[in-house]
Design brief:
- The protein is built from ten helices and seven strands.
- It folds into two domains: 116 residues, Sandwich (Jelly Rolls); 56 residues, no CATH class.
- By secondary structure, it is an alpha+beta fold.
- It comes from Elizabethkingia bruuniana.
Length: 190
C-alpha cells in the first residue's frame, strides 16, 4: 500500500488520519488478463490503483467493436468516473490487458471520506484536474486535428506503453482498422 499512498502524496500530502481512514476501505485484488474490472452497462462501484499490470478503458461502437479511449499502467488510478458521479450504468468497460494487481476502494465510502478529509478532497481535485482536464485536453484535440499517423508517431514516443499493447489495441485507440495500422507502420519504416 506504500506505493498507493506515495502516489497520492505526489498530488497532495495526506494527514495520518486521512491515510488511515483511506487504507481502512482499501483492499488488494487481482485480475487475470482479459478479466473485466468494470463492465459497461453496470454502475461502477470502485476506484482502482494499479500496482502492477496494464488496463484499457473502452466502449463498444455501433459495429460491436471495442474502441479504446485510454490505457492505465502502474501507479495510475482508473475508474469509470462518470458512472460513479452520476451513480448510473456507464458506457465504458475497464479490462485487464495484462495480469494486474490493484488496490480497489469502494466509491461510496471513498466519496464519504472526501467530505470528511480536506486533504483527501484536495488530492481528488488535483488528480482530476491533471488527468481528466490538463492531460486529456490535448488528446481530444489530437483526435480532431491529427491524422492517425501523427497520433501513432506520438504513441511511439511512449515505449513503456507502446511495447505492452497488442496491435489491435493500438489500432482501436487510433480509430483505424488493423489493416490501416499495418499500412501506417509500413509507411513509417519506408
Amino acid at each position: 500500500m506504500q506505493d498507493f499512498i506515495e502516489q497520492i502524496n505526489l498530488y497532495y500530502p495526506l494527514s495520518a488520519e486521512a491515510t488511515d481512514a483511506l487504507l481502512e476501505i482499501c483492499k488488494e485484488d487481482y485480475f487475470k488478463k482479459n478479466e473485466l474490472l468494470q463492465k459497461s452497462g453496470e454502475t461502477a462501484r470502485y476506484y482502482y490503483f494499479i500496482k502492477s499490470g496494464l488496463v484499457g478503458y473502452y466502449m463498444i461502437d455501433e459495429d460491436g467493436e471495442q474502441v479504446y479511449k485510454l490505457f492505465f499502467a502502474e501507479k495510475s488510478f482508473p475508474a469509470a468516473t462518470v458512472s460513479i458521479i452520476k451513480n448510473e450504468p456507464g458506457d465504458f468497460s475497464i479490462v485487464a490487458l495484462e495480469d494486474c494487481t490493484v488496490i480497489k476502494y469502494p466509491a461510496k465510502e471513498y466519496r464519504d471520506l472526501l467530505t470528511r478529509h480536506h486533504d483527501l478532497a484536495m488530492f481528488h481535485i488535483r488528480y482530476l484536474e491533471k488527468n481528466w482536464v490538463v492531460n486529456k485536453e490535448p488528446l481530444e484535440i489530437s483526435l480532431k486535428h491529427e491524422t492517425a499517423k501523427q497520433r501513432y508517431l506520438k504513441l511511439l514516443k511512449e515505449p513503456d506503453l507502446y511495447n505492452r499493447l497488442k496491435q489491435h489495441h493500438i489500432a482501436s485507440y487510433l480509430g483505424v482498422t488493423p489493416t490501416q495500422l499495418s499500412r501506417i507502420r509500413k509507411e513509417i519504416k519506408d
